[in-house]
UniProtKB/TrEMBL annotation:
Gene3D superfamilies: Leucine-rich Repeat Variant. GO terms for molecular function: oxidoreductase activity. Pfam families: HEAT_2. This is HEAT repeat protein. SMART domains: EZ_HEAT.
Amino acid sequence: MNQAAVFADAGLQEPLLAALGDTRYNCQAWAVKGCAAMDIRAAVPQLLTLLDHPQWIVRDETVTALGLLGDASVVPALAPLLGDQADWLRQRTADALARIGGDAALEALWSEFEHRRFPRIGYLASTLALFTPEVLPRLLAAADSPDPDQRYWAAVALGSTGDDQAVPTLERLMAGDRGVTVFDGEVRTAAKKALRTLRRIQAAITERETTKAG
């Protein structure tokens, strides 16, 4: 099924859509994967019904597929999964929302970042960074939060933006923030690592642009 996009046949669309609802042969996960690989957007309504499927692999493939095939209309169905007890599902959901993009997806991710329900939210930090430059003012403000956990994750996200506007804030946190998170993470250490990440991203962009120019 990984090669479905290569050997795509329009005649497969109808059987794949039918297979999404077929519980007899335990093939729904593969049907979901096939629909995603073949860009079958007509599958979206059925995919939404599979988000609470009892099999984890079906939920996994469904969230990923909705990130590829869905638009802003599926965000309300995906957003609650950011509060799921399974960390892998929260991460898949954040990735899907980032891929969909747009204001609704950003608001869903930001709400979870701001009203944190889990101690480790690196997946939110990395996906929020993908909304640069729109998200930068929010992240810079979060870096001034009285909550050390929010400052910590804001620093992580700012590093992943690769944006020079984040540098003064990260340098300030690295130099003077003695805050510690609920899992004993130091804000200044997060800021130091974030600066390294930011520089690596910038170096990679410069190298890529130089290669293209050459």
